[in-house]
Each structure stands twice: as C-alpha cells, then as structure tokens.
Amino acid sequence: MRVMQVLPALDAGGVETGTLEIGRALVAAGHESLVVSAGGRMVAQLEAEGSRHLALDIGRKSPVTLLKVRAMRRLLRRYSPDILHLRSRLPAWIAWWAWQGLPPAERPRLVTTVHGSYSVSRYSAIMTRGERVIAVSEHIRDYILQNYPDVEPERISVIHRGVDPDQYFPGYQPTAEWLKQWEAQYPQTRGRELLLMPGRLTRWKGQLDFLQVLARLRQQDDRLMGVLVGEAHPRKQHFREELEAEIDRLGLREQVVLTGHRSDLRQILSQARLVFVLSRQPEAFGRTALEALALGKPVVGYDHGGTGEILQAMYPQGRVLPGSVDAVVARVQSLLQQPGEVGPVAFTLSAMTEATLCLYQELYRDSSTSGR
What we know:
The protein is elongated. The chain is of the alpha/beta class. The chain folds into two domains: 2-162 and 349-370, Glycogen Phosphorylase B (Rossmann fold, 3-Layer(aba) Sandwich); 176-337, Rossmann fold (3-Layer(aba) Sandwich), CATH 3.40.50. Helix 1 links the parallel strand 1 and strand 2. The strands form two sheets. The protein has a seven-stranded parallel β-sheet. It has a six-stranded parallel β-sheet with strand order 10-9-8-11-12-13, with helices on both faces. The protein is built from 13 helices and 13 strands.
C-alpha cells in the first residue's frame, strides 16, 4: 500500500508522534509512507525511518491556505496513494476538497482520526467525513456519537494510542552522561523530589492549578520541586508570562523549573516522584500519562477524558475530581506516603499500529475487489 498522512506540521505533540509511529510501522511492513506537512523539527527523524516528507503548508489559518487545494490535488495525482489519512481540521478541509475534485475512480480511500474534543461546528465536522473514522479513546467515540449523529457507529474504530514497553518500562534510567547534563543545567533539582507536569504551556492544560498545588505542598515539605516541561505556542507567549508572574506571586521562584521544549521527556519522566495531568478540558487520550505509568511512575490526573481511561486501567488511585485543587493536594499527600503499584501497560504501540494498518488494509482490499 501507499499511505499518505496529512497534518499541519511536524514540530512536537501527540498527533505528530502518532504520525511518525504509523509511518515507521508502514515502512517496517513493506508499505510506502508519505507525509504532507509544512515541516518542522521531526522531519529528519521521519525521513530517517523511511517515510517521504512532502512539504506543503496547509495548516496556517489564512485565506492564502485556501489556494493550496490545487497543489494538494497535484500531490494526490502525482503519488496516487491508496489511503489518504487526515489528522487535523484545516489540512483536512484542503485535502478533502482536493480529494473531491478527483474522479471517483482516482480517489484514495479516506481515513480521518479525531484527535481531540474539537468545538462542535461544521468546521470540525470534517474530521468525521472519513470512510472510516478513528477515535483515539472511548471518550472521543462518545464525543463523535453525541455531537455528530449522522456518523454511523460502524464507521468509527476506537484505536487507543500506545507506548513501546521496550522503551518505557519500570526501572528505566537514563545514562550517567544525561544525568550529569541535566544537573548541570538545572542544579536546583539535585537532591529534590521532582513533581513533574509535562505539556504545552496553555491555559487548558492546567499549569495554574499545578502551581496552586505546589504552593500548598511546599508548606509541608520543602524538598518538593515542580518541573514544567513544555513550551508555549509563539502566539501564546503571554501565557508563559502569566505563569512567571504567578510563580512570583506564590513565592515559588526557588521551587519551580520551566524547561521549555525538551526532546528527552522519557529521561525526565524517569526522574519524577509524581507526574501530573491536570487538563481542565478532557484529554482526547493523554499520551504523557501513559508514558509515565509505563515507567512505573505514579500519575495524579483529573478523572475525565482519555486520562481517566488510562488511570482507570493502570492506576485508579491517581484519579481525582476534575478541577479540584483540594482533591489533588489530598491525593498527593496520600501517594507520597503510599504510592501503591502501577498496573501493567494497557495500551501498547504495537496494538495501535497493528489496528491502524489492519484498517488501512481492509479499505485497500475492498478497493481492489470493487475495482475502485
């Protein structure tokens, strides 16, 4: 098969990581993997793993982007993919219009993945137009059925994201060289108990709640150190400034580290005493919660969305009432004393890639037998 995945860019994030994972699996299985995006820091890895990157900026919210439909249609005609997999709303619209403009016999089979609980609108509905629609969690399946009643349930396939147990396992430790570099860069973390919150710096991810929790806990144990891993979008630097101001207001300057973007999250997670997922809106899946738990690290998270599903499956004692800082503080105090055991990995990378490739192959075989 020749599979073309389409997304805005390849910088960082769960959608981007999943794209690389599927590309890697396609190549390993002897198929051809094409990815259309504006580019980014992950392109080198994508290409090193055998996929081909086709640069086309169809994720920028600008009227100029609408002019890219013809360019997208040219890519479809030139490469003739068997499967077209759309992963983000604006690129999905551009690719869908391009797809619609082809004669039916030339159209690849269409797959969409709903990666989030998007605002319910005609604009977001594009992600439900796939001949097959992938939901990344049961939460997302419910979201689709509740908000887009025209989508037949049989078109939806729940395929949870997953981790590789060979890479994420209890007892994993980074190299001595990595530890040396980490402590040289962040000497204030040496000998401290790290409370880690990974995620893009944006209001809905809950970093302000995390700071409130840390301020409360500091009164009982000054060995605790908060680590915020992630960067703000260039257009949302004001939120990082707001976080900095809140850190100063709470007197946490000596208790909080903001690392910005890091490509070594696995190593950082391995050094945490507790990991937090406090998203104010339900996560579609919650990859970082799964990665931390796979490393054997206790996770405290708001009990909704994909995070709630992961915690229920692997570490139910980490679930707390969404939005309740009091509940988080009380649970952390308990888990610092008795963390309990993290269960076995419930969602694996191999299961995710196998299910996705099987879905592709179903459509591919159907095309071959129907003469499409």
